[in-house]
Amino acid sequence: MRWHALEQYAFLHFTVNTFTDREWGYGDEDPDLFNPTSFDAGAIAGALSAGGMKGVILTCKHHDGFCLWPTKTTQHSVRSSKWRNGKGDVVGEISKAAREHKLQFGVYLSPWDRNTPLYGGPKYVEMYRAQLRELLTQYGPVFEVWHDGANGGDGFYGGAREKRTIDKRTYYDWPGTWDLIRKLQPDAVIFSDIGPDVRWVGNEKGVAAETCWATISPVGADGGPPAVGDVRQNDNQTGHRNGRQWLPAECDVSIRPGWFWHERENGKVKTPAQLFDLYLKSVGRNASFLLNVPPDRRGLLHDNDVKSLAAFGAMLRDTFARNLANGAKLQASSVRGAAYRPENLLDGIRGTYWAPREGIRNPEVIFELRRPETFDIVRVREAIQFGHRVDSFAVDIFRGNAWVRCAESTSIGACRLILLPEPVTAGRVRLRITKAAAPPALAGFGLYRTSQPG
Ligand code: FUL
Ligand 1 centre and the CA of 148: distance in Å? Predict the structure, then answer.
């Protein structure tokens, strides 16, 4: 429930690749390459926070194997780098700055390691767990642990320079690793293609499917059993109505074409309006928005990224600052009892909700606004402690002498945002549940007007 309330957080892709201009390092990079000239974790965290981010996940180790913290498990880390005479610790500084800026801290530890000679054998799995143990015990609370699905292939592997393939289903013994995470950070959610808590949305574009269920029974690409690195991507985009597991989707995307910083992409930073559109298509479709903003060779976010983030953050704050339905007089077709009044829809609290009497699956509620308001975004939230109850719903406005439908949609979950084709003005608005698996429990309803980027 706490993770669902975060809605959006940032990704930081930063390592030797930042200095070699690559997306995937081979694993033979000299640690001295990692030498940011003016790394400033506070400035990075400040810029992310201005963008409305609630947390930050750092690539503590990417596929090249270079560790951004002084690990005891390998020499291939900041300890062997000229940077700060081998005394630097990027993980330490980012986690501290995150807390100072009220951002939750998360870790990405690539399972694939192209540097170590141990990769492919059982000793590497021990090393991976030892690295996790360091990250999960030395840097305070962690909200999310991120395991990507890129697994095995050619690499340096301590000088062997060969191709190593692993069996995705058995090699890592993921259940054993997840147990360790549960023990060390019981409040962290674990992300991968198949969870066990949060699932990859099946693309790297930052968008969930129009209908996106938090429930899913994951399947492998060929229809067989799924694994980290082997899922049917289309299914991950939509989830499955009545799926076995509650595995809400997370939409990862970069603010630039690549995950790492490249000079040539300084002019290709997504605009505030593009980021807002991604927010609507991720958070607004019951998923979370994981936005990557890669530090440059100085160890700072590039000015173009900082500006775009700040304007996006302002757009979000201005748009959702005031719920135009607040203060409305409410009239529900059915109310379960005093604790379940429709006023709960407007109290801004996710835990309280409006529910109709037992057996009623198609209730509606009318909002008599204090004055006619102009809006172009509708927000609906379910009380997800009860799962997905609603299959579809519609929103109408009263115009002339009749109700006119202005929006309709399917899955709701933690958050559904609908952007209307154009702003509408109305004094009376109606929310209608058109199909539900049980009496709906709705936690929130809001009307907003998109603020234009300044
Ligand atoms: C993928 C990686 O291969 C990319 O480099 C990036 O880290 C992305 C977020 O995950 O699996």
Answer: 6
